[in-house]
Write a structure and sequence with these properties.
The complex is a heterodimer. In chain A, 39% of the residues lie in helices and 21% in strands. By secondary structure, chain A is an alpha+beta fold. Chain A has five domains: 5-128, Four Helix Bundle (Hemerythrin (Met), subunit A); 140-249, Alpha-Beta Plaits; 309-363; 366-545, Histidine kinase-like ATPase, C-terminal domain (Heat Shock Protein 90), CATH 3.30.565; 550-690, OB fold (Dihydrolipoamide Acetyltransferase, E2P) (Beta Barrel), CATH 2.40.50.180. Chain A starts with 8 loop residues before the first helix and ends in a 7-residue tail after the last helix. The model of chain A is unreliable at 132-152, 247-299, 503-507 and 692-697 (pLDDT under 50). In chain B, helix 1 (23-35) runs parallel beside helix 2 (52-67). Helices cover 44% and strands 19% of the residues of chain B. The longest helix of chain B is centred in the middle third of the chain and has 16 residues, at 52-67. The interface between A and B is large, with 39 and 39 residues.
Chain lengths: 697, 98
């Protein structure tokens, strides 16, 4: 039976991208001079894993490129090459290239071979230029992490490694495995060439050598096994612990393999070519306590598709609704049985809430998923613009719903790019202003009041409100005599196409983006604020809901229908008085709220339903806000506030302007969830059609 | 006194890229050399990249030479080749017995 490897492709691509993220993070931590072995090992492991996986899956372009990169990394690992910013830059670009090649392979698109060849040649050039110093010492000091402790008596591992016929073809190389073993502890290697056939009969892509290695040190079994991760199933491997940590008698010394030239023998498959195993090799090595612990921690997570989690969340949402229906049905019942039923239903409700929260947590990811892209961005852009910038990240373990995270990434990138381009001054300008030559950009994330707050702070020149106001007046966004508060002036930068940049660069300055930033954040049910101090810097604060699957809503009744109004959009709710209402056209009315006049949106009119009240004085006005616009929503009455599970209209029906979705209420009724920006757009469009010359607002 | 080395008839120059990617070409080159009579010289001075497949080919060549009593000498080995030979611990197998 042939194993269909294609089923593993998606997992490979996902894991490779994650691994490339960690490779980039490690590269950005590399400082000039002698490379930190731990960091270089991390980078090397990523390249090695991707190369092995690519070769296994037949992605030969990726495997060949990564092979060369791996060789360069191996030189660094062997201490033959010093780290400088040029080398780090090449490695970062190599990571980008691997990501690009993997994306193209995944999308079944052609790889840009010219660019790959150019970078490949650059790496080859680096490798051939000097740096090829002393060979790796025979006994490499083991990293502290891998060695548990110095044992009084000798302890370690005896390894018998017999490569299988496909090991080399799949991009694996015993040379690297042996080098990697040497990084764990001092080791003694003995090669066995007796199965190497005459040159003419040798398949050059098949390894016929085998090795016995004695690793001298209490190395964790998991560390040892991780060296052989990618050759699992492609070799015969025996690991035998010896010494006090092994908990087993020390096995007899493995006799040295005679290095005498082997007589010509028929080719024997490597798997069957093994000599009779040494007695101790048959027994599984007894793991050390630390090794057992490491083994127990392995497999602590599984990869599950987001669709499966969403299905689960949806089912839990349905259960919550059903439980709510049951509670309502039980409410009017009387008697002792009814009391017991209500008590059991109360318990059910508590369990349901706990279950719902647990499933919600499954969708939560740390914001570091988004933050991790910024060290590279700040480094590259700072270099490009000749600015010295330090990036500080705090709260990167703050968790957010996956969908929110996916949508917040681009707005944050835009804000950080803006801070680098327009906020942070050049080193000369900073020194002249009495500041440090290094600018600082901070990204903070934290929980506050059921929301997540993300801040982008820079210590640059700050926003120049007079320049913003002048530009806004020039563009007619603000009247010549109109006075605006500082906050409203700053908010002008979110107007479409607004820019005060004197020079349009490829980084920013075209005025495209800040409006998109605000729109994206609003679409997430979030809110954005700007604070700035001239000469000292700016802060953009974004407030985001924890999740998009559940909404905090205010239930409002219009006739027999119930609507859910997102609480984040509600400013206040009032009962109108006659003197506050003015008619400005046949049907258009505005409402005076302190110094503002707000259009009145009659929901029954907008959605064509029969209301209980049509007189504004009989119902309530909910003042809602979206995109800087406020309107008064006229409803019959307010009901309770509650969290509702959002059901997509688009998936279950079709998109409707002004509606964000639907939900099921406890009494089994369906309530429509209002999308306030959509409601305002729908209202304006309707008014425009009705009375083009007399529309309100 | 050790016997004077016989004059060298052939010369094996190992390529800069002595890896699995050029393994078949290297095998062909080594097989040609095996057909020549008399001692030969192996020049590994320009090897920049080497892997187990490359070393194994040179090893198979060296073993065949021993089998056929074809003497060989190493002219030079690059640092990369030396390191690979040492890590794989095949140095003793690659030396022609004195």
């Amino acid at each position: 039976m042939t194993l269909d490897l294609a089923q593993f492709h998606e997992t490979f691509f996902a894991e490779s991208n994650e691994a490339l993220d960690s490779m980039e993070a490690a590269l950005l931590k590399l400082s000039a001079g002698d490379a930190d072995l731990e960091l270089v090992n991390t980078i090397f492991r990523v390249a090695h894993s991707i190369k092995g996986g690519s070769a296994t899956f037949g992605f030969s372009d990726v495997a060949a490129f990564t092979h060369t990169l791996e060789t360069l990394l191996d030189q660094m690992r062997g201490g033959k090459r010093h780290v400088d910013s040029g080398l780090v830059d090449t490695l970062l670009r190599s990571g980008d290239m691997m990501r690009e090649m993997l994306a193209a392979t995944q999308a079944k698109q052609p790889i840009d071979k010219e660019r790959v060849a150019a970078l490949h040649a650059e790496i080859e050039l680096i490798m051939s230029s000097g740096g090829a110093g002393a060979a790796v010492p025979a006994k490499v000091a083991a990293p502290a992490a891998a060695v548990l402790e110095e044992a009084d008596a000798r302890s370690g591992w005896r390894i018998h490694f017999v490569p299988g016929p496909r090991l080399l073809r799949n991009g694996n190389d015993p040379l690297r495995l042996l080098r990697e073993l040497a990084t764990l502890a001092p080791c003694e290697v003995r090669a066995d060439a007796k199965w190497v056939p005459p040159l003419r009969e040798l398949d050059p892509e098949e390894c016929r050598l085998s090795w016995r290695v004695e690793l001298d040190g209490a190395v964790e079994e998991s560390a040892l096994k991780s060296v052989f991760d990618w050759v699992d199933g492609e070799c015969d491997l025996n690991l035998e612990a010896f010494g006090p940590a092994a908990g087993t008698p020390v096995a007899p010394t493995v006799p040295a393999v005679a290095p005498a030239p082997a007589p010509v023998v028929a080719a024997i498959p490597a798997a069957a070519a093994d000599e009779p195993a040494a007695p101790a090799a048959k027994a599984a090595p007894a793991p050390t306590p630390a090794a057992s612990q490491a083994a127990a921690s392995d497999g602590g997570s599984i990869r599950v598709s987001i669709e499966k989690v969403d299905e689960l969340l949806n089912s839990v949402g349905e259960l919550v609704i059903t439980q709510s229906v049951l509670s309502q049905l039980a409410a009017p019942l009387e008697g002792r049985d009814a009391e017991e039923l209500r008590s059991a239903l109360g318990q059910l409700e508590r369990h349901m809430r706990a279950l719902q929260e647990s499933v919600m947590r499954v969708r939560m990811l740390p914001i570091s998923v988004v933050f991790n892209r910024f060290p590279r961005l700040v480094r590259d852009l700072g270099q490009k613009l000749g600015k010295k910038i330090e990036l500080r990240l705090t709260g990167d373990s703050t968790e957010l719903d996956k969908t929110v995270l996916e949508k917040i990434g681009d707005p944050l990138v835009h804000l950080v790019r803006n801070s680098i381009d327009h906020g942070i001054e050049s080193p000369e300008a900073r020194i002249a202003a009495g500041k440090s030559a290094h600018g600082v950009i901070e990204l903070n994330a934290y929980h506050k009041g059921g929301n997540v707050v993300v801040e982008v702070i820079d210590d640059g020149g700050g926003l120049r409100s007079e320049k913003i106001l002048a530009k806004a007046r020039e563009r007619g966004l603000v009247g010549p005599d109109e006075e605006l508060s500082e906050e409203r002036v700053y908010n002008l930068i979110f107007a479409p196409g607004f820019s005060t940049a004197d020079v349009v660069s490829d980084v920013s300055g075209r005025g495209v983006g800040m409006d998109v930033v605000k729109r994206n954040i609003n679409e997430l049910g979030g809110h954005v604020q700007i604070h700035s101090t001239p000469g000292k810097g700016s802060m953009v604060r974004i407030r985001l809901p924890l999740t998009l699957a559940i909404l905090d809503g205010q239930l409002a009744r219009v006739g027999s229908e119930v609507y859910v109004v997102p609480i984040v959009s509600i400013v206040e709710t009032i009962q109108a008085r006659q003197e506050q209402v003015s008619s400005i056209a046949a049907r258009a009315q505005v409402f005076r709220l302190r110094d503002d006049y707000l259009p009145i949106v009659r929901l029954y009119d907008l959605f064509g339903i029969e209301p209980q009240h049509t007189d504004l004085l009989d119902g309530l006005l909910m003042i809602v806000e979206a995109d800087g616009k406020r309107v008064g929503l006229f409803v019959d009455e307010l009901m309770s506030q509650q969290q509702v599970v959002i059901k997509s209209l688009e998936t279950n029906f079709r998109p409707v302007l002004g509606l964000a979705g639907a939900t099921m209420l406890g009494d089994g009724r369906v309530a429509l969830i209002l999308d306030i920006p959509g409601v305002i757009t729908r209202f304006q469009s309707r008014e425009g059609q009705r009375e083009p010359s007399q529309r309100a607002a | 006194m050790s016997p004077a080395p016989k004059p060298v008839n052939g010369r094996v120059v190992l390529p800069a890229n002595c890896t699995i990617h050029g393994a078949r070409a290297l095998q062909a080159h080594l097989l040609e050399q095996l057909e020549l009579p008399g001692p030969c010289e192996i020049d590994g001075g320009s090897v920049q990249q080497v892997d187990t497949a490359g070393v194994q080919l040179v090893l198979a060549f060296a073993l065949d030479c021993l089998e056929r009593n074809l003497q060989y000498v190493w002219k030079s080995r690059s640092a990369a080749l030396e390191e690979a030979i040492r890590v794989l611990n095949v140095g003793a197998l690659l030396e022609y017995p004195a």
